[in-house]
Amino acid sequence: SMRAIGPPLTAEESAAFIAAARSCVNRVKFRHMGRDPKTGMDCAGLAQWAAQQVGRPVWDIPAYGTQPHRDGLRQAMVNNMGNPVPLESMRPGDVVLMKFEGEPKHVGIIGDYPGGLLSLIHTYGTIKRVTEHRLDAMWRGMIVEVFRP
Asked: What band does 27 get if pLDDT is binned at 50, 70 and 90?
């Protein structure tokens, strides 16, 4: 399917995408609909900003409330990155659609974690900032679909 952000990221671009997201950890605060690290970003804003840092076109999700309308978030991810890849193929640089409860409404970026494990880089409203932590079984269980930018 068509991908608004263009062809798949190269290995170098993928590493730079992760590094850009990681540069926001503990430094950028949560702001709903936020798209700028200086004033705050939400989960979708972090992924969009990191993509821009590797020279990919701005891809944005139309205005949404704190509960994104049914399938709107997923459709935007498909429009940007094409169809999802199998969950078991998840690797650093992938963008994941997650749900805490109810409709999927959260976006995270998969990073590398010491010991060959995976991490999750995301703007987490509960702690009001961008964070990175190991992708343990609890967090992995919240992943609905995996997209490869």
From this structure: very high
113 DSSP β-pair partners: 117
User: Is pLDDT larger for residue 21 or for residue 67?
Assistant: 21
Tokens of 10: 């190269």
Contacts of 149 (CB under 8 A, 6+ apart): 5, 8, 9, 14, 17, 47, 51, 56, 80, 81, 93, 94, 95
- Cβ pair 43, 106 in contact under 8 A: yes
| Cα-only R_g, the chain | 14
Give, in order, the Cα–Cα distances in Å from 33 to each of 3, 57, 62, 121. 22, 18, 10, 17
User: Confidence class of residue 105 from pLDDT cuts 50, 70 and 90?
Assistant: confident
pTM above 0.70, yes or no: yes
| DSSP designation for 103 | S
CA dist., res. 32 & res. 53, Å (int): 21
